[in-house]
Amino acid sequence: MLEADQRNSGLGQRHGHEPRHRAHQRISCSLGVVRETHPANPLVSVIIPAFNRERVIARAIHGVLAQTFQDFEVIVVDDGSSDQTPKNAIKLACSDPRLRIFRFETNQGAQAARNAGARVARGK
Asked: Among 10, 29, 62, 102, which has the highest number of CB atoms less than 10 A from its own CB?
């Protein structure tokens, strides 16, 4: 699984095993956005598995980010989409530090995407 944000995920290390896809990739935001610091341990982790959802992924993410409760992180796990889903999510991640994007190179199924998100979640 590839990490598509600016932090190293440590995916798999939490449970003592390697993820199915071992390669990690950092994608930097080239928009010149200054990212504010956010607590490393949010109260809630929201996991959004996505496969070929370029038309609705931004709306789903904005729906979570618009909540009045703000002590959360949003983890989007792209399940090997062949459309612009990961690109659209990465654009949003560049402007909000609570948003983390992960990506499978090939489709693994919704349950694998949810489980991968749960493994990297920092919420309680």
From this structure: 102
